[in-house]
């Protein structure tokens, strides 16, 4: 019995050893199948997420319906490859047609090169007299600006009207050993004059109409190029008076200047949006063709004269070309859109210059005799001068955009 047991034991051990590799191989194959199934499940989950994103952006073409009740989980790998390779296109629609109206409150300071209105004279000592010209200093004056704009996609047409009317006054008084004279009368004839007064009235109107194109309307940084026409009217009345302390004797003059013209205008505006804020800068230039009018009136008042002496010096109207440049910097805040449209508030600073738009006369007097005070103005020479007209100051604008 023992001789059969030992061979049987050896045979059993041999069979067990041959079975173990097969069991190990079967376990390894099962693990590989499980890993493959897990990978397919992750892949299907990624495909489902990808499909949801494509449907949300509405840029993917509709998928063909699955047949035989097949689900996305059962789709083969090659059917998902086109979605992995196709780029996502995000389309920004062009803005619709819209209207915009605006109103601005401005505080502008106007100026020109002819602000001197009288002279303070120190006649003593006689061998070395000297003269101090007195000048007007215009303050900031309230002005308004009205505008309208129609937008169709990236193109627009706009019209804007700016109006300013300002008045400036000044005066000074000489000491007993001083005297006062207008610019054309600073000799002994003005010895009776001790008080100087000056006033300035300025009027400015500008109407601009232009068409523009905005590049990259859906970008944070935009640039608008525009061109059109500008109509401008610039008027100025400058009065200087020298009078005695009792105001019984005086010599005064009023210089009238007016320019009216129109011409082409081009410019560019850049804007950067940051959240609800817009930061913008604009510069434009124009060449205005129009008519200039210049005249100076003289008025001499003397107690012994029954009537004041009225004189004037005028020139024919002339046609001129006036170049101009204007610029502005601004910051705007955009309120949240409502059913009534989009509301915006803008603050900034602007400046404009119209070259040689103001005319004046420089005259000299030749007295025929020493008369105190003088009976009138006697001219030896007269020269017509021009100077620039400028405006600058802060502004605040409210804009309402609606469809």
Describe it for me?
The chain folds into two domains: 2-85; 98-402, Lipocalin, CATH 2.40.128.90. It has helices spanning 2-57, 81-85; strands spanning 98-111, 116-122, 130-135, 141-152, 155-173, 179-181, 195-215, 221-243, 250-274, 277-301, 309-314, 318-334, 342-365, 379-402. The chain is 15% helix and 56% strand. The chain is α+β, with helices and mostly antiparallel strands. Strands 1-4-5-7-8-9-10-12-13-14 form a ten-stranded antiparallel beta barrel. The radius of gyration is 44 Å and the shape is elongated. Strand 10 and strand 11 (309-314) form a beta hairpin. It is built from two helices and 14 strands; from the N terminus they run ααββββββββββββββ. Residues 58-94 have low confidence and may be disordered. Residues 23-57 form a coiled coil. Keywords: Coiled coil, Signal. InterPro entries: Major_OMP_Legionella (IPR007825). Residues 1-26 form the signal peptide. It comes from Rhodopseudomonas rhenobacensis.
């Amino acid at each position: 019995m023992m001789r059969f047991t030992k061979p049987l034991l050896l045979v059993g051990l041999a069979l067990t050893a041959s079975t173990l590799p097969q069991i190990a191989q079967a376990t390894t194959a099962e693990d590989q199948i499980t890993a493959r199934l897990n990978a397919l499940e992750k892949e299907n989950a990624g495909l489902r997420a990808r499909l949801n994103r494509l449907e949300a952006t509405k840029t993917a073409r509709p998928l063909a319906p699955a047949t035989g009740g097949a689900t996305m989980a059962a789709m083969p790998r090659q059917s998902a490859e086109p979605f992995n390779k196709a780029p996502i296109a995000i389309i920004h629609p062009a803005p619709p047609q819209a209207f915009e109206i605006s109103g601005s409150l401005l505080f502008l300071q106007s100026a020109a090169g002819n602000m001197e209105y009288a002279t303070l004279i120190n006649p003593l000592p006689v061998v070395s007299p000297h003269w101090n010209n007195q000048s007007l200093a215009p303050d900031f004056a309230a002005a308004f600006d009205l505008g309208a704009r129609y937008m169709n996609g990236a193109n627009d047409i706009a019209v804007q009207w700016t109006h300013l009317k300002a008045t400036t006054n000044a005066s000074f008084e000489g000491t007993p050993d001083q005297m006062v004279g207008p610019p054309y009368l600073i000799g002994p004839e003005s010895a009776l004059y001790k008080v100087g007064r000056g006033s300035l009235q300025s009027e400015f109107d500008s109407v601009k109409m232009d068409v523009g194109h905005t590049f990259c309307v859906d970008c944070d940084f935009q640039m608008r190029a525009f061109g059109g026409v500008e109509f401008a009217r610039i008027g100025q009345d400058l009065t200087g008076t020298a009078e005695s302390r009792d105001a019984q004797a005086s010599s005064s003059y009023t210089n009238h200047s007016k320019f009216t013209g129109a011409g082409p205008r081009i410019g560019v505006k850049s804007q950067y949006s940051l959240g609800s804020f817009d930061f913008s800068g604009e510069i434009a230039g124009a060449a205005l063709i129009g008519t200039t009018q210049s005249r100076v009136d003289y008025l001499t008042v003397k107690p012994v004269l029954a009537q004041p002496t009225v004189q004037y010096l005028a020139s024919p109207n002339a046609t001129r070309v006036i170049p101009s440049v204007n610029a502005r910097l601004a910051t705007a805040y955009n309120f949240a859109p409502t059913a009534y449209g989009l509301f915006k508030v803008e603050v900034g600073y602007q400046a404009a210059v119209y070259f040689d738009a103001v005319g004046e006369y420089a005259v000299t007097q030749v007295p025929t005799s020493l008369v105190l005070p003088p009976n009138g103005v006697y001219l030896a020479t007269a020269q017509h001068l021009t100077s620039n007209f400028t405006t600058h100051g802060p502004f605040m604008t409210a804009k309402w955009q609606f469809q």
